[in-house]
């Protein structure tokens, strides 16, 4: 259902090293050529049996991807599957789909074609979704720069390893994991050389490697250079703030345009940020230096709501409280270590 959005929330990413809405539901987008009876189909499934009932067979790519998703622990409680006509562009198919089915966040496609992958990633960027693609060719990363697409480069791309990775990572509490070091069920290591692995990482992709008998995702980054968990954290906080502020507006008779009303807004924002801290999204304030970046001394966030007197008269006349800001430090995750040791006699 359409609505006018009067809750304007902007979060700027300033996290380069130094240099709800549910986030677990995944859409699998497949394609068929006519006269396949599944063209135009959309379904939501809690298990593979439901897909069989709907007309899928175990050799279908959508079924194979779903099987890998449901094989993970934890795994999403439900996935969505949509089949579009192969003659329709992916972006057109998705544009049509979200008019009626838009309660999913992660996007996978059955196609391994580079142009299709790029189209899906570009679409995700414009719609605040997160696309996880897979191909056997590292050249698919060339010239890609998109914070809402991440690529698994794997010589066994047609085994859909990205579906297993997505199935394991999406349902976990945002802030509790990084997408690196994960060992999803049903995935084997790629057979790339070290030179190829370095090229994949330089292109801001990832694959699956094996060390000490463990197969693991060797990065967790988007082609835009931002970590996947950072993008999900941003989306989570934006969604929770929107929900909390909407709930406040509908729960009380009104938010008065005075400093008491400003305090109500500030308390609501702080509640969301405090929960984000508890989830591991926002860093804990441990040292005295940390606490200088913390309003409350526990997590590293700061909130500022200007007093009514500082809100321009024109904005007050329009019942718009402007100038509200917040900032926080991400907890992040350790992806690399550098250790020096000394042996003495």
Give me the secondary-structure category.
alpha/beta
Strand content: 5-15%
Biggest sheet architecture: 6 strands, mixed
Tell me how many strands there are: 10
Task: Explain what this protein looks like in three dimensions.
This protein is an alpha/beta fold and 345 residues long. Helix content is 32%, strand content 14%. The chain contains ten helices and ten strands. A six-stranded mixed beta sheet has the order 2-3-1-4-5-6, with helices on both faces. It has a two-stranded antiparallel ribbon with strand order 7-8. The chain has a two-stranded antiparallel ribbon with strand order 9-10. A hairpin with a 2-residue loop joins β7 and β8. It is globular and about 65 Å long.
List the SSEs and their pairings:
Layout: E1 26-32, E2 42-45, H1 48-54, H2 61-70, E3 79-85, H3 90-97, E4 106-109, H4 114-127, E5 130-135, E6 149-153, H5 161-169, H6 194-202, E7 208-211, E8 214-217, H7 228-251, H8 259-279, H9 288-291, E9 301-304, H10 313-317, E10 325-328
Parallel strand pairs: 1-3, 1-4, 4-5, 5-6
Antiparallel strand pairs: 2-3, 7-8, 9-10
Helix pairs in contact: 2-5, 7-8
């Amino acid at each position: 259902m359409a609505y006018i959005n009067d809750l304007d929330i902007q979060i700027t990413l300033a996290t380069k090293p130094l240099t709800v809405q549910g986030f677990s539901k995944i859409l699998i987008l497949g394609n068929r050529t006519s006269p396949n009876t599944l063209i135009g189909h959309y379904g939501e499934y809690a298990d593979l049996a439901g897909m069989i009932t709907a007309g899928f067979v175990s050799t279908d790519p959508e079924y194979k991807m779903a099987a890998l998703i449901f094989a993970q622990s934890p795994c999403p409680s439900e996935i969505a599957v949509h089949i579009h006509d192969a003659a329709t562009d992916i972006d057109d198919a998705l544009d049509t789909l979200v008019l009626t089915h838009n309660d999913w966040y992660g996007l996978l496609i059955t196609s391994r074609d580079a142009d299709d992958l790029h189209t899906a990633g570009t679409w995700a960027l414009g719609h605040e979704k997160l696309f996880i693609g897979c191909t056997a060719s590292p050249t698919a990363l060339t010239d890609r720069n998109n914070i809402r697409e991440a690529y698994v480069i794997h010589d066994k791309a047609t085994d859909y390893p990205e579906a297993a990775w997505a199935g394991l990572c999406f349902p976990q509490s945002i802030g509790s994991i990084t997408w690196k070091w994960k060992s999803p069920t049903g995935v084997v290591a790629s057979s790339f050389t070290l030179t190829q692995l370095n090229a994949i990482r330089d292109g801001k992709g990832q694959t699956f490697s094996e060390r000490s008998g463990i197969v693991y995702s060797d990065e967790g980054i988007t082609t835009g250079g931002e970590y996947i968990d950072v993008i999900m954290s941003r989306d989570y906080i934006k969604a929770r703030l929107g929900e909390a502020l909407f709930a406040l507006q509908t729960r009380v008779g009104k938010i008065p345009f005075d400093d008491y009303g400003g305090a109500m807004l500030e308390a609501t924002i702080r509640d969301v940020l405090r929960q984000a801290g508890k989830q591991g999204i926002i860093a804990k304030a441990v040292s005295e230096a940390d606490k200088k970046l913390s309003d409350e001394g526990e997590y590293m966030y700061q909130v500022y709501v200007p007093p009514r007197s500082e809100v321009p008269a024109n904005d007050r006349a329009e019942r718009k409280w402007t100038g509200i800001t917040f900032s926080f430090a991400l907890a992040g995750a350790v992806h690399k270590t550098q250790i020096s040791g000394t042996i003495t006699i």
